Amino acid sequence: MLNTNRANTELSADLESIGIRAGDCLIVHCTFKSLKDSGATPKNVIDGLLNALGSNGTLMMPTFTYSYSGIYNVIPFNPRTTPGYANGILSETFRCRHGILRSAHPTYSIAVIGKHAEFLTSQRELCSPLGRGSSFEDALMLNTKILLLGIGNNRNSMIHHVEVAAGLPYNDIPFREFWKNTALVEKNGQIEAVALVPEYPACSDNFSWLDRQLLQEGIACRESICGADSLLINSAEMKKYLLKEIKKKADCLLCNSIICEPCTLRRRRLKEQGLM
User: Fold this and answer.
1) Which of 24, 37, 200, 254 is the most exposed place for a label (fewest CB within 10 A)?
2) Of 87, 125, 81, 82, which is closest to residue 103 (Cα–Cα)?
3) In the chain, how many domains are there?
4) Is residue 187 part of a domain?
5) Structural domain of 220
6) Is residue 88 part of a domain?
C-alpha cells in the first residue's frame, strides 16, 4: 500500500510548483484515475487543495446533473441530494463535504467552498448554464485559475462560456435535440418542469488543441501533480486569447466528426450566416 502521508507531501509541493497560491479562486476538473498510483484519496486531494488556497481562497467544482426533461429516466434535480453525473469521484466527494454550497441550476450546478462561495452559487436557478449570468462568468471576475488535473481542455467548461461571450450564433443548439428546453426539478416533494435559458454547452472534443497552444502563449503551465499530467490556466487570459481566435476562425472550437450532431448543426449555422 502506498504511503498516504508521502502522497500528501508530494501533493502540497506539486500544487505550489504549478502555481496555486493562497487566496486564489480555483476551478478544478479532474479524472481521479490519473492519481491511482500516488496513494492519494479524494479527501486527501480536496484537503490539499484547500490547504494550498488558505482561508481566503475559493474552491469550485462542477456537479452537473443534465436533468433535462427529455432524457429517459432522468433524476429530477434537487440541489441538496441529486448527485452529479459523470463529473468524477473527486467532484462527488467534494459535493458531499461539510460546508459546501451548491448552486441551484437544474442542469449545470456547481459546488463551492471558501471566501466567494455564496457569490458564486446564489440566484443561479434561471441563468444561463455556463454563459451569461452563470457562476462561470462571475468566476472570471475573480481572476480564477483553472486546474485540469490529469485531463486536458476537452474537459474545461469555461471554454463553453467563451462560446457564449463571443456571440457565436449557435449556442441555442443543444447537445442532443431530445434533451428539450426544460429541466425536471424536485420542489417540496413534487416534480415540475422548469424552462431553461436557451444556451446549451455542446461538444468539447476539439478543445484539446488548446492544451499546447495555451502553453505556447504563456497562458497555462504544465506540471505533474502526484504523477498526473496537469494544466493550470489563467481563465481571463484564456478568454482574451480565444475571443481573438474565434474572430479569425468562427468554427475553431467545433469538431470535425461527421457523426457529431451538435458540431454539424453549429457549423451549418455559421455557414448560413456567412461566418465561415
Assistant:
1) 37
2) 125
3) 1
4) no
5) 4-67+83-171+205-272
6) yes
